[in-house]
From TrEMBL, chains A, B:
The lineage of its organism: Bacteria, Bacillati, Actinomycetota, Actinomycetes, Mycobacteriales. It comes from the Bacteria. One of its GO terms (biological process) is negative regulation of phosphate metabolic process. This is Phosphate-specific transport system accessory protein PhoU. GO terms for cellular component: cytoplasm. The gene is phoU. Plays a role in the regulation of phosphate uptake. Belongs to the PhoU family.
Amino acid sequence: MRTAYHEQLESLTTQLGDMCGLAGTAMERATQALLQADLALAEQVITDHEQISAMSVRAEETAFVLLALQAPVAGDLRAIVSSIQIVADVDRMGALALHVAKIARRRHPQHALPEEVNGYFAEMGRVAVELGQSAREVLLTRDPEKAARIRDEDDAMDDLHRHLFSVLMDREWRHGVAAAVDVTLLGRFYERFADHAVEIARRVIFQVTGHAPEEEGLPLSR
Amino acid sequence: MRTAYHEQLESLTTQLGDMCGLAGTAMERATQALLQADLALAEQVITDHEQISAMSVRAEETAFVLLALQAPVAGDLRAIVSSIQIVADVDRMGALALHVAKIARRRHPQHALPEEVNGYFAEMGRVAVELGQSAREVLLTRDPEKAARIRDEDDAMDDLHRHLFSVLMDREWRHGVAAAVDVTLLGRFYERFADHAVEIARRVIFQVTGHAPEEEGLPLSR
């Protein structure tokens, strides 16, 4: 009985890890759709989002059944409670990728982005995939060193975001207000995507060590 | 034993309701700080945020203890799992009020907002307080009709947000890109605040009726 239970708990973790991977892939594709003004790819991200939503519902249900049937205690209980919270974070990561894809679709056949900022978004898309992969690894390995890597990736995202804003705020910005609004929102979506990955790592590490990771140098997501 | 347990569960709901009220008040004050360029008020919102964070930690801990000590089943278990998810939503509402206050502080002694959009933000601030109050009432009464009121308030927020964007996108916008960036982010913060209130109502109603409220006309937060 205990063994079947731990198998289920492990399967829940695998589900969450898979969702992180999918969210990263969604953000990668949404970024491509944005950069290439690729309508078909934007549509694909929008359609594929159903899958992440369905997996969220399934993961919540798995966690609920584990609580209901097994009445777990101590560490196991903490793991399941964390899982319920992590579902919300990774679900949101998927929704943020969806938002990016929707802006790409709304602006099609135009490019949403002025060419000047393409490089920033290409890089933010690359970091987003890494964050999805790293969150997955942290979930599967519960390794604090891997969690520290997420901190570095989040720092990279913050730097990109800050530079992007300095480009926007520059008096030389000559792409008008509408493009500035899109770039502001898009930048925010990538930043929040990273925040949620950090939050997932924070929850896993808290669960493993009993300390909030910010005490161990991993900043709290805000 | 069962009675003490239900008292604890009720106290958890009260905690969540109080947090919703505080988040609404925080957004009201942050809005005032923004409109009046009132640094002291902005600082107060920033300081008071600690209280919401501390209450989040406490509410999560209460929920955890209830799960650990009581091994609840069925409806009670669902109520506690929802509570854990609701903590995350209301915590985020507080963080969004904090973000508004921080923009007011960053721009002080300037006003962050061009006078032209003050009216929109005054109104969004008013709706935010109502949303905090309504979320509190939905939590305490579990009344689907009160949940429907949140839908109306969210619609009002969406309308304000849409109008705000049409002002921004207008060729007549003459406040420059920096102000447009602030207005974009601020508008997004109010919109997300409303989304989280809707999500709280959705969770409460799902728990009461077993149906997602969108099946009953309450739109899913996105």
